[in-house]
Amino acid sequence: QTCALPISVAAEPGTAARLLEVARSLLSGSPPLSFELLEVRALAATGRTDEGRALAASLLARRPAPEHEAVVQRELALTAFITGDAAACGEHMARALDLTSDTARRPRLRAELAFARFLALDQAGARTEAEQAIIEAATVGDGVGEVAARSVLCWLYLVTGDPAAARTLAVEVERLADRA
Q: Are the CB atoms for 120 and 89 separated by under 8 Å?
């Protein structure tokens, strides 16, 4: 019953959150883990940070499998981002990356970690993660991950006072985005 909701959470998180609330009210007993993971995503994406943190804490207390914990950690990172806690955002993204063994997912997670490091004003950490994400993305053919990582580098060039390098990289990012 929840197979179409991941798309809805990404495209229409508010609608997905309302649908999940209705679905939960109709359930008898505990919902499946996949349902609760979608709830965490929807709550984080709609800015319902306290509810999202509470559900995430409940899920983490059950010691889920690493791939499920990675999803929870990523959504906690989004919650931290929304609330302006750059340090916690980076910590949760680093944990999500550590828990992810799927090489196809790692470049995007690493690019998100690079962005979290950038937000925390950790320029060296952001650069290291972005450069590694670019390598990993190229290895698995993840154009979106490469665009995300190169975008972080572009921002780094801007804040370090190298607008020429930022413009050059921005043209490359645009070219890659057209292909991704």
A: yes
